[in-house]
Amino acid sequence: MPQPGRREFLQYVGMGAAAAFLPLERQTPELVLYNANIITMDPALPRAQAVAVAGGRFLAVGANDEVRPLATALTRSLDLEGRTAVPGFIDAHTHPAVAGRMHLRMVDCNLPSIDAIIAAIRQRAALTPPGSWVMGFKYDDTKTSEGRALTRQDLDGAAPGHPVFVEHRGGHTAYLNSLAFEKAGVSEASADPPGGQFSRDPATGRLTGRVAERAKDLVEKSLPLTFSRDDYREGVKLISQMMTRTGITSVHDTGGTPDDLRAYQDARESGDLLVRAYCFIGIGHLDQMIAAGVRSGLGDEWVRVGAVKLIADGSISERTARLSTPYIGRPDDLGILVTGEDELYEQARRAHLAGWQVGTHANGDVGIDQTLRVYERLQREHPRRDPRFRLEHCTVVNDDLVARIKALGAIPTPFSTYVYYHGEKMQYYGADRTARMFALRSFLDAGIPATQASDYPPGEFAPMMALQSEVTRTDRRGNVWGPNQRIGVEEALRVGTVNGAYASFEEGLKGMIAGGRLADLVVLGRDPLKEDPSTLVTVPVERTMVGGRWVFEA
Ligand SMILES: [Zn+2]
Fold it and tell me: Distance, CA 459 to ligand 1 centroid (Å)?
C-alpha cells in the first residue's frame, strides 16, 4: 500500500475547500476509522488506512499514524481490522420513490417459482379483508422454475375470495384472477380495447389472466392505488433502507414528479431519508417549475432538483427500443419512437434555455441518434458552457454515436446489472448488437464518464451485482454477452462513484473518499479488487455510512 505523505494529509485538513468553511469545533473528528483498506478513488491518494469524519464530511484521509492522533476524548475510534472501504455508490438512474410505494402496498413477486408466488399471495390474502385487492409486482415470466406463465387459475387457487393483480416486472403486462376481472368489469365476452389485449387460451378461448398494454391500463383503474402524503414519505423511508443495505448512498430518481420531490423532503425532515436524492422532473411538470424559478441544482446535498426527463424511444426489456435494424426473429419490427425529433427539440430547448440539465431516455441506436441531433442543435443555436446532457440508458451504440457523445460531453447511464440479471433477454438482440450494448468499454476508452444505473424496479440495484455484470458480461446461467465490453473492477468502482457524482454536477462533493467530501462510504467484507470476478455479487456489504452516520450495519 502506498504510504501517503504528511504534506498531502495536512493539505486536506487545512486547505480543502470545504474544510475551510467548517467551524473549529467541527474540525475535531467525531469518528475515526482505522486499520482499513481504503480504496479512495482519489487520484492524489488512491489508497489509505484511516479516515477521520467531522460534521458529516471527511476531515482527513491517510495512514493510521497520521489520522489516529487527531482523535480526542470525544472521538469514537473503530478498528476495521483490515476490511475494505470504498466511496458510497451512486445509482444514476433509478425509480426509488415509486418503487418504495409499491413495496409498501404490494407483494414482491421476484420469486424463483410460481408455487412460491402462490404462497406469497396466499399469505398476503390471509392478512387482507375478503373482497379487498391483493397486488403483486416484479413477477418475471422468464425466471420461474415451472417454465410457464402465471395463470388465472393459479391466482384463483391462491386467493379465491380476493381480487388479485400481479404486475410483470417490465410494467407493460399483468396477471389477474377471476374476481379481479369481475371487479374490473371484464368478462369472457369483453372485446380487447384498441392497443391492448386480454390474452385467451387458444384451445378454449377463455381468459388466461394476462392483460397487456391498454387492457392493463383499463383494469388498473379499479386498483386502490391512491397514496397519502404519509405513504409517499413511508415509501421513501422503506426504499432508502433497502438501498443502503447494498451500499447505495445517492440516487438519481428519474421518476420525475413534484410529489416525489416533496416525499424526499418530507422524509428528510422526519429523519427517514438515508440516501441523497437528485430528483428529475418530468417534462409535463417543467413549465410549473420554470414559472416558480426552479432549475436543476436547486436544493442541497440531501435533496436536489435534477435534470428534466424527456423520452425518445421504447424499452430494452419489453423490446420496443427504436433500432436501425430489426429485432431477431421479427423482421418488420424496429421498435417505437415515442417522441418525434421536432417535439423532442422543442421540449429540450425550453429546458435548456431555462438553465436545466436535460436527460433523455434513449435506448436504441435510432433513439440515441435523434437525441444527439437535438443536443447538437441546441449547442449550435444556444451554446451553454458545460450543459452535461444526459442519455438515459443509451443502450445500443456504434462508433459514430460514441464519437458524438464524446464531442458533446454527454453522459450515458447504461443498465449496470442487465447482463448478469436479465441475460436471457439478450437473445432478441443478437451477437452483433450485444457487442454494442451497455457499452462501458467503448465509453471509457473514449473518455466518456458513463455511470452505474439500475433502473429499479425493472433492474436489480445491488452495486456488487453491477460490478460483476460489468466486469464479467456473464449472466446467471454462465452465458457471456458482449465480452468486448468488459471493464476492470477498479474501473467499475469509478463508474459507480466518481462518474455518478459528475452526472449530477456534484463531483466536488462526493464520489471519493477525500478530505472535505461528504462522508459517504461502504465497508465491504472482502476486497473486490482481490475477488474472483465471478463471485463479486457475494461480497458482503457490512456497513454503509451517509454523512458520517451509519445508516446500515449488518
Ligand atoms: Zn427509468
Answer: 9
CB 436 within 8 A of CB 316: no
The pLDDT value recorded for residue 431 is: 87
Q: How far is the CA of 487 from the centre of ligand 1 (A)?
A: 23
Residue 361 CA to ligand 1 centre (angstroms): 8
Q: What's the pLDDT at 12?
A: 47
Instruction: State which H helix or E strand residue 213 sits in.
Output: strand 207-213
Q: How far is the CA of 256 from the centre of ligand 1 (A)?
A: 10
Do residues 1 and 49 touch, judged by C-beta distance below 8 A?
Answer: yes
CA–CA dist 251, 350 (Å, integer): 25
CA of 254 to the centre of ligand 1 (A): 6
pTM for this structure? 0.91
Residue 11's pLDDT is 38
Residue 362 Ramachandran class (φ > 0 left, ψ -120 to 50 alpha, else beta): beta
Residue 335: partners with Cβ closer than 8 Å, 6 or more residues away: 313, 314, 319, 320, 321, 322, 323, 327, 364, 366, 367
User: What is the full DSSP assignment across 14-26?
Assistant: HH-TTGGGS-GGG
Condensed to tens digits (0 to 9), the pLDDT of residues 460-474 reads 999 999 999 999 999
Nearest to 459 by CA among 140, 47, 206, 97: 140
How many angstroms separate the CA atoms of 100 and 63, rounded? 40
pLDDT digits (tens, 9 = 90+) for 354-384: 999 999 999 999 999 999 999 999 999 999 9
Name the residue among 199, 146, 204 with its Cα closest to residue 174: 199
Q: How many A from CA of 515 to the centre of ligand 1?
A: 33
Q: For residue 521, report the phi and psi dihedrals to the nearest 5 degrees.
A: -150, 165
The Å distance, Cα 73 to ligand 1 centre, comes to: 48
User: Would you mind telling me the total number of residues written for the chain in this entry?
Assistant: 554
**Pick from 477, 431, 469, 436: nearest CA to 453:** 469
- Report pLDDT digits (tens) over 100-140: 999 999 999 999 999 999 999 999 999 999 999 999 999 99
Beta carbons of 309 and 361 less than 8 angstroms apart = yes
Q: How far is the CA of 215 from the centre of ligand 1 (A)?
A: 22
Q: What is the pLDDT of residues 489-542, one digit of tens each?
A: 999 999 999 999 999 999 999 999 999 999 999 999 999 999 999 999 999 999
Question: Whose grid coordinates read 474540525?
Answer: 27
Question: Ligand 1 centroid vs 552 CA: distance in angstroms?
Answer: 26
What gap in Å lies between CA 526 and CA 83, rounded to an integer? 7
